[in-house]
Amino acid sequence: RQPPPQTVVLVLRRDHFTCRYCGGQVVPTPVLRAVSLVWPDDIPWNRNWRADSTRPIHVTRSASIDHVSPHAHGGRGDMANSRLTR
């Protein structure tokens, strides 16, 4: 399941658009997809992440939300248990 959009925005702001693992800057995936719609020849995107038809920026800068403690190990689905990763 994907977290609600409100949670994603709050985690992005809280973490300053920075990956908790590597410290690199991230871009929300919907933003990267929108850019690909505007410039499809320059920044192509493939919904299946095919390497031959997707720019590396989608893989290297796309943001995702991860749990600090997984649900399978008793982790909660709140902000305190969420972190930004790429």
Would you write up a description of this structure?
The chain is α+β, with helices and mostly antiparallel strands and 86 residues long. The protein is 29% helix and 9% strand. It is built from three helices and two strands. The protein has helices at residues 5-14, 29-38, 56-60; strands spanning 64-67, 82-85. The protein has a two-stranded antiparallel ribbon. The model has no long low-confidence stretch (mean pLDDT 78).
| Number of DSSP-assigned strands | 2
Give the biggest beta sheet. 2 strands, antiparallel
> Taking all residues together, what is the mean pLDDT?
78
Strand order in the largest sheet:
1-2
Structural class: alpha+beta
Low-confidence stretches: none
Quaternary status of these chains?
A: single chain
Radius of gyration: 14 Å
Order of helices and strands: HHHEE
Helix content: 25-40%
- Taken as a percent bin, the fraction of beta residues is 5-15%
